[in-house]
Amino acid sequence: MQLTFDQSITRNFEEAVRREWLETxxxxxxxxxxxxxxxxxxxxxxxxAATQPPVGRxxxxxxxxxxxxxxxxxxxxxxxxxxxxxxxxxxTHLVHFSRDLFPEFxxxxxxxxxxxxxxxxxxxNTTLLTYEVLFAEQAFTLELLPLIAGRDFHRLTHANPGxxxxxxxxxxxxxxxxxxxxxxxxISVPGATFRAEPNWYYNFxxxxxxxxxxxxxxxxxxxxxxxxxxxxxxxxxIIISTEPPFHRNAFALLDKERRRRESLLDGPKGQKGLxxxxxxxxxxxxxxxxxxxxxxxxxxxxxxxxxxxxxIALPGLCLATGRFDDARxxxxxxxxxVSRGMLPNRFPDSGETPEYNTVDATLWFFVxxxxxxxxxxxxxxxxxxxxxxxxxxxxxxxRGTRYGIHVTEDGLLYAGEAGQQLxxxxxxxxxxxxxPRQGKAVEVNALWYNALRIYAELLRAYGHGELSLQVTLKxxxxxxxxxxxxxxxxxxxxxxYLSDDHRSDSxxxxxxxxxxxxxxxxxxxxxxxxxxxxxxxLCTPVGLxxxxxxxxxxxxxxxxDGFSCxxxxxxxxxxxxxxxxxxxxxxxxxxRSGRKQAREVLKKFEYHLLEGCVGSVSEIxxxxxxxxxxxxxxxxxxxxxxLRVALEHQLCETVATEKPLAVMR
Length: 665
Prior knowledge:
alpha+beta; 9-stranded antiparallel β-sheet; 37 strands; 32% helix; 28% strand
């Protein structure tokens, strides 16, 4: 499978504008836009810098639009959506786009064929653009128009007198500071001249923001234009950065970044197809937090790092791909942030105190540690750094912690209080919790059982046999009560949650975790019936619906303003990350036939890698065909879970036939 597009896509604006590309820098910053060149999101930009890694993100340079002057004619390669029209229409000159290690564009105009490559440099707020003149009948001039936003990536800007129009241009390097609270912006264009023409460009329109019911028009500032003469065979390397690029070479930086990405593909992880594509995509989410730690950006373009998403995504992003040191640093980062026995739900964008309104993120922490140990056998780290944290977590859960989270007399875990959303189905509009699941949620108790079993296993491994037995007995009580209380005989599946006076018989995907987690709570006929029910009600080619279409609250389309979107978020909307537990359950329940079915599931999913954010996996999809991608264009747990099951279970033909030692069970 190759991520390439010919003129049937690139020269069709409607097709090109709905496909995005993304380059990330390991700090939380990135570069991103559409194949057409027209931005459709406020989050698009050529340099979106993480000023407080991995947060504090600012759109510094929005665009660098190109114009070719050939034989007195102008050929504009950029595209922008304005009220009522697209101008210029540079996409009509785009003859080829490909995405492998980097996004590459090939333009043909006026007898010139030009290849552009875009790359974000790992570990710094730097974007590279390289141009190669593949063919030119005669010399021509390349003009570059920088369009500056200089704003927080959540906001939009409009023409204002506060923009700092002052700049310096020396030795091919342009420097400015858009606003007093902005980082410096450097643009290195070797061999170019710069003509100062400060001006505002008005009313850029961002179609996805409009669809989401958000502000969607913006003004951008230009200080002037770069220009340089080029001939066939010439190359130009441009560096856009928050740091001085003097004496740096864009092609050398690009080559270094190419080697780094190629190193991610070394070993038996698959060099072609879905494994290759998603291994490269996985790299985009693993970012720096503080000096020595790592974390996971939950989704691009707007999420920061979330505890739940991180723990679910970690095995696929880091363990299945052999990035064990990154996994270790991520686990340590979250272990150091545990409070009252709870992992943070999320770290806010501006570095404020973390939020702890989650019940399941903490339990996923146990699962991630269990899988880390299976891959690495790093008992020294787990025993010294994590075991005290795990003990503290369990102690808090038994005696009770925030938001009514506590173990009840029957051994099951209760969570919730009015106005709080603690499970992964966490949409809330004002004080309205859209998917109220206060009480004993099915996946929470599957995770609780796994946390106890995992902790007991670690105690036994570290020489605490008596304590291990005590914890194991508590786990067995959970299993017995779970099977007694959660089984819905009428529907042949599991209740979604139990409260004091209610048993929710909504058919949701949460019941799969009673099968898919490392320690299953149900087996045999019950597991077979649950899997069959999920398939009958929830399965699509791109993931599982969050609610059965037969339910009165089912919403088939995710769209419109914030209220409309949030009220559909977990009421039918398809989630691609759920393909992971679905495949896992399929393999456990159906054995060899499940393996064949799992291969087919991944094969049917591959088409999505050519839509949305090319080469990555969207957060959510409409529940009805054609299952339009929605939400974040690239989501960590979506990539992580699909990659994990593909690699761990060798479900793609391009994966090496011999299993790496690290994943032997």
